[in-house]
Amino acid sequence: xxxxxxxxxxxxxxxxxxxxxxxxxxLAILSTFVRLGILVWSGGIxxxxxxxxxxxxxxxxxxxxxxxxxxxxxxTFGIQAGGKKKSDGGGGANISKKDMEMLIExxxxxxxxxxxxxxxxxxxxxx
Length: 127
Hints:
mainly alpha, elongated, about 0% strand
């Protein structure tokens, strides 16, 4: 009588261990799949927030948190979402370098100090 060996089906971790023996490479592959899962989830939620499906009542949500998760995950893959990059050396507020230098010069001529006025409500102390 021949001894037959029945292979037990392997789970995802078993297949990953079979693919590579290096623990660091296994963790890198696993983290990539986790990031892809989060990317698909957040992209799907964002899409459903803007797409109307007939026969399905849509609840509007604030997409700020999910958009930040989506942007963060895409950044881990080296993708940067955003507007066009400016090459004129200006700041992020669409101010040219020349205008910024002029503002700094005027501010330095006005006064060497800055006055800040704080308005706070009266505090009532009772004992």
